[in-house]
Design a protein that fits this description.
binds coenzyme A, 5 helices, 33% strand, Aminopeptidase, single chain, alpha+beta, 7-stranded mixed beta sheet
Length: 168
């Protein structure tokens, strides 16, 4: 089996919602995620599972037909945040199914999202992470994000958020 990173399509949304809600400790409802997707689809990328590289390429060419049926094992949800009136890239969510972790999939998803932000002319990417989420913090730090500041009681359960930033 091979994992292929590609831009998200409308047909992927139900699976993105499932992967998000299964893997991220979040208060986001399916409606919140669908709203984010409709606004920022061009910054969403998915990791889809295929029998072979050739099959993945065929699915990619089929533009949504076969591609929409492939199993999604990870995604990144990029979005846009205003900072002093300047739009900047933001990572709203990223997750990889447990059986597919530690294979570089999240790193590959972040790379595609960063490229999309660069094409948009953004100079900075930010994100919030739970201080207790050591796997995600390691991922972000390895990818070049630096901790910038803390937002007290950011999450619905009262945990603080660490805000990370990366200049691109
Ligand atoms: C965080 C997460 C997305 C990482 O996905 P992944 O595909 O396993 O990440 P990668 O394979 O690209 O890892 C890249 C680097 O991140 C760090 N890392 C990833 N998972 C780690 C873990 N469990 N413990 C320590 N470091 C970890 C490592 O430095 C790793 O490099 P290495 O494997 O060469 O040591 C995944 O664990 C996940 O889905 N977690 C649940 C959802 C979540 O917490 N999302 C973030 C908040 S929105």
């Amino acid at each position: 089996m091979t994992v292929f990173i590609r831009p998200a399509r409308d047909a992927d949304l139900p699976q993105i919602i499932c992967v998000w809600q299964r893997n991220i400790r979040t208060a986001n409802t399916a409606e919140d995620i669908a709203e984010l997707f409709s606004q920022f689809k061009k910054f969403f990328f998915v990791a889809s599972l295929h029998a072979s590289t050739q099959e993945a390429e065929r699915a990619e060419k089929a533009e949504g037909a076969a591609g929409g049926k492939a199993e999604i094992v990870g995604f990144v949800a990029g979005s846009v945040k205003e900072d002093c009136g300047e739009p900047q890239g933001h990572i709203s969510g990223i997750a990889v199914e447990p059986a597919f972790r530690r294979r570089g999939i999240a790193t590959a998803l972040l790379k595609r999202c960063e490229e999309a932000f660069r094409r948009e002319g953004f100079k900075r990417i930010s994100l919030e992470v739970r201080p207790s989420n050591s796997a995600a913090r390691s991922l972000y730090e390895k990818f070049g994000f630096k901790p910038a500041f803390v937002v007290r009681r950011y999450y619905a359960d009262g945990e603080d958020a660490l805000v990370y930033e990366k200049h691109i």
